Amino acid sequence: MITVKKNQETLFNHIASEFEKFGEENYRSPKCRAHWETRKTRGRLEERIVYVAAAPRSLKETGQWADLKTIGMVYRHREADPNSQRQAPEPTSSRVTFFISSLPPKAKQVAKYVHAHWSVENSLHWTLDVTFTEDSSRVRQGSGPEILASLRRVALTLLKRDTSKRKMSIRLKRKVAGWSQQAMEAIILGS
């Protein structure tokens, strides 16, 4: 499963156009299938609708995407749970994301993969931001952002692999490695 972003303009527009056509029929076309999920988490109500359709022949024929079977759209709506005890509820938000997949176009099955995929992605990005304040990085030009992102992921892998100080958070392990040459070597060498 691959998320399709706007920087992949032709593919993004092709998929958006397909789902726009389905939307004109209120997503009731026999070619489009949907799966709805509603969840309460962390003081929020989240609704997620996964729409899937067989990949159009025109996309398959390009040969760019081996085993392409499915195009998809995920609509996510998030709002504060009125029964929540949270002091400052998050603002209401809606988001649409497109993807391609080699899975068959079965909405419920694809929805499970979408949820698992985004759980991993969100966990990784949250850890990188908390540990390395990645979102605050001021490096934005040339290949600098990609190089630093790779180095952060290598460092995160080494910190997660380290078992010498099991009770320490990843963030604290990073600080300890900065304070002590011996601790840094133990983390890098895995000893």
Description:
The protein has helices at residues 9-24, 57-60, 107-132, 144-161, 170-179, 181-189; strands at residues 2-4, 32-41, 44-54, 70-80, 93-101. It is built from 6 helices and 5 strands. The model has no long low-confidence stretch (mean pLDDT 83). α3 packs parallel to α5 (170-179) and α5 (170-179) crosses α6 (181-189). The longest helix has 26 residues, at 107-132. It has 2 domains: 2-106, no CATH class; 144-189, no CATH class. This is ISAs1 family transposase ISBlma7. GO terms for molecular function: DNA binding; transposase activity. Residues 28-157 form the Transposase IS4-like domain.
Show the helix and strand layout.
Layout: E1 2-4, H1 9-24, E2 32-41, E3 44-54, H2 57-60, E4 70-80, E5 93-101, H3 107-132, H4 144-161, H5 170-179, H6 181-189
Antiparallel strand pairs: 1-5, 2-3, 3-4, 4-5
Summarize the structure in short.
Helices cover 43% and strands 23% of the residues. With 191 residues, the protein is α+β, with helices and mostly antiparallel strands.
How far is the first residue's CA from the last residue's CA? 36 Å
Query: How many E strands?
Result: 5
> How many domain modules?
2
| Mean pLDDT across residues | 83
The radius of gyration over CA amounts to 21 Å
Element order, helices and strands?
EHEEHEEHHHH
Structural class: alpha+beta
Q: Which sequence of strands runs across the widest sheet?
A: 1-5-4-3-2
Which geometry do the CA atoms define?
A: globular
Low-pLDDT runs of 5+ residues are none
Number of discrete helical segments: 6
**Sheet with most strands:** 5 strands, antiparallel
> Percent helix among the residues?
40-55%
- Assembly of the depicted chains: single chain
Percent strand equals 15-25%
GO molecular function, one term: DNA binding
Protein name: ISAs1 family transposase ISBlma7
Pfam families: DDE_Tnp_1
Domain Transposase IS4-like: 28-157
